[in-house]
Design a protein that fits this description.
mainly alpha
Length: 205
Amino acid sequence: MMLTRKSGAALVGSGRGASARSVVVRAQAQEPTSSRRQMLGFAGLAAGLLVGANQSAHAIGIELIDDKSKKLDYNNNIADQARDVDLDNNLRTGRTQARADKQFVVSRVAENKKRIETDVKGYIDSKAWYFATQELRRQLGNMSLDMNTLVAASSDKKQGAALKKDFFTAVDNMDFAIKKKDQAKALKYQEESVAKLGEFIAFAT
């Protein structure tokens, strides 16, 4: 069979098209392989960095401490008391221990007075009403129980209870003034609260 020039050109053209298509297919098939190689390369780099970090790290010796040398009472410690349900709840929670020392209780109340005198007043001065309320709440948290402890230890419980009532009346007025954002009244009752608490501390000591 004889091939004409036109038919030969057509065959050559068709051959070139097939070759081009095959090149495109191969390139597309090789893309995932190159991506896997990149991921493997990154993994190898990360592993190398970890190995280098481990080699540069220095081991630190652990110091062993023998608590037996401290002569601790393992039959009567704080952790066991907290878990002993047969004990009184005040003893388990530490309330009894916290109020056993009168001077320690007085020092706590004195610290509350100092913060009402400085921190609470500072917030009222700057009209930071939210922070004034929160700081007042923090100082009043255990104050009533501490004041009850001091009243119980005093010789005149009636007078002690009256002084405590006067203090909390002034505090209630100050708290209400803070809620109303009345700076003048809040400062007035803040000063009165500090004075009443000072009278109570003087009575208790």
